[in-house]
Design brief:
With about 230 residues, the protein is of the alpha/beta class. The protein has one domain: 3-Layer(aba) Sandwich (Rossmann fold). It is about 35% helix and about 20% strand. The protein contains six helices and nine strands; from the N terminus they run E-E-H-E-E-E-H-E-H-E-H-E-H-E-H. The radius of gyration is 16 Å and the shape is globular. About 40% of the residues are buried.
């Protein structure tokens, strides 16, 4: 039931920039959520929309597919997982299909006049993992990558791709709550240290007492980083 590129145009919601559009941010939700759901959640945490003077924010929604951790039940997920663990194989077939679908979204921004080095990719939880696959395996010329409460599996195809790469890589901005019980803080730290060892410039911010959730301090830090990567 995996989606194939060409048959899928992702549903999305967008927040337009207040001024002239000169950069784009693709923000991917976590498993079981939606683009609109993520936008609303961020708005509740910040008491306002995640907006910029010049950056368009795009929140796509993953198409529903069977999800193994839900015993095959349908869910809005970017890809399948064999289990929620960093010590098992990746479900690469579904990841690769979605990389192609999201590439169509990136290509649409480029066709509208936004350069690749003015596009940022990132997400929360599974969305952050998807963004790392998308950037480090397929789009190493984007402006940067962010991953909030996310991880890569120990034998990730991302690591394998970076072992063969010798170009300049997009910087990674990572945040993780120390009290996260679903995606352990140590999984995020390990992902960060492996990527750093493979030549990725990284920033890793720990948030004491934060669970598997977004926090105001984290989103404010993210916003400042976005503006350093995508200046007006």
């Amino acid at each position: 039931m995996a989606a194939t590129s060409g048959s899928v145009r992702l549903q999305r919601c967008m927040v337009s920039p207040a001024g002239r559009h000169s950069a784009s941010l693709i923000f991917l939700h976590g498993s079981g959520d939606s683009g609109q759901g993520l936008r609303t959640w961020i708005e509740q945490v910040l008491n306002q929309d995640f907006t910029f003077q010049h950056v368009k924010v795009i929140y796509p929604t993953a198409p529903p597919r069977p999800y193994t951790p839900l015993k095959g039940g349908f869910s809005n997920v970017w890809f399948d997982r064999f289990q929620i663990s960093n010590d098992c194989p990746e479900h690469l077939e579904s990841i690769d299909v979605m990389c192609q679908v999201l590439t169509d979204l990136i290509d649409g921004e480029v066709k509208s006049g936004i350069k690749k080095n003015r596009i940022l990719l990132g997400g929360f939880s599974m969305g952050g993992c998807m963004a790392m696959h998308l950037a480090y395996r397929n789009h190493q010329d984007v402006a940067g990558v962010f991953a909030l409460s996310s991880f890569l599996n120990k034998t990730s195809a991302v690591y394998q791709a970076l072992q063969k790469s010798d170009g300049v890589l997009p910087e990674l901005f990572q945040c993780h709550g120390t009290a996260d019980e679903l995606v352990l803080h140590s999984w995020g730290e390990e992902t960060n240290s492996v990527l750093k060892s493979l030549g990725v410039r990284t920033k890793f911010h720990s948030f004491p007492g934060v669970y598997h959730e977004l926090s105001k301090a984290e989103l404010e830090k993210l916003k400042s980083w976005i503006l350093t990567k995508l200046p007006d």
